[in-house]
Design a protein that fits this description.
Oligomer: single chain
Mean pLDDT: 80
Strand order of the largest sheet: 1-10-7-11-4-2-3
CATH topology of the largest domain: Rossmann fold
Distance between the termini: 71 Å
Strand content: 5-15%
Helix content: 25-40%
Low-confidence stretches: 16-55, 70-93, 99-108
CATH class of the largest domain: Alpha Beta
Number of helices: 11
Length: 361
Amino acid sequence: MKKRLIMLVALIYILCLIFGGDGVGKRFLEQKLPELTYSGSKCVHKENDDEHILEDEDTAGSIFTYEELAAMENENASAKNSMMSDTDQLASVDEAVKAAGEAQNISKENKPDMPQVDMSFENLIKNYYQVDKTTYIGADELCESNLLGRDMSIERSADGPDILIYHTHSQEGYCDSSDNSQSATVVGIGDRLSELLTNKYGYKVLHHKGQYDVNDRDHAYSNSLPEITKIINDNPSIKVVIDLHRDGVAETTRLATTIDGKPMAQIMFFNGLCRTAARGAIDSLPNQYLGDNLAFSFQLQLMADEYYPGFARRIYLKGYRYNMHLCPRSLLVEVGAQTNTVEEAYNAMEPLADILDKVLK
């Protein structure tokens, strides 16, 4: 009897070591089934210094099965606009620097407090994120210390640009866009965002209008990567990189709202997680700034919900990288869809510029 009692106590002790606290059993489950386990208290920001590989459909072919590729098509399916023949151009920052001088003289408001919300993993997944079925995320990344513990404010540059705006898919337009007008595409919407950030908020903005999806949309991310990398290297003052897009939805879907009496397209922040549910981390597409990217989009989402309810759709999380590894404050924004008007997209830049300022200042 005494021998059996000793064996029972020993068995209980071993089970506690395996499954209690941070034991090997818990770590085994977290590694093998990350979508079923998470830690609500720890945030680990891992940096990956592996060689950066171009991201395109050819690269994808060596990573994913046919079924995975079909599920992970290059963003949402969207209608293609007629191709423009303009050559790549880099918008001069001179006028932005000059115009910012007057805005800098305006007294700067205190940075607003970040809205207080329920930061439980369950609430974030339910109300703030839409996780694509091809990928996964856990509470070690979506937790308060990771999303709100990072300071996303910037010190403005004395001479060079603070913010870079560009368009991986420059051909994306709206339901009333004309075939030959760049101003009626996301490039024109980028002009409006640049104007607001410069003249109203005093930032120095570089708007790059290079075209990387003309006749070759499938390779737009790999086509744009060398030039965007060069721009960032040539302008070390850049602290924020915004890739402005337009979403693609069913023709019966309208992503619209009204703010201050103005019709506006809804926006959506988008993050690539560099991993799939089937394969785990994509080693050829590392992103050492993933934690910063997630914090930046989430803080913007909170400001949007607080000051402009209904303006921002839930943050979309997908498996690729989308060139968001180039800068800690990298942002991919979908402005409306092909069913919105140019006016709605144009008007949406007012609240977007405002929430950017609220987070960056």
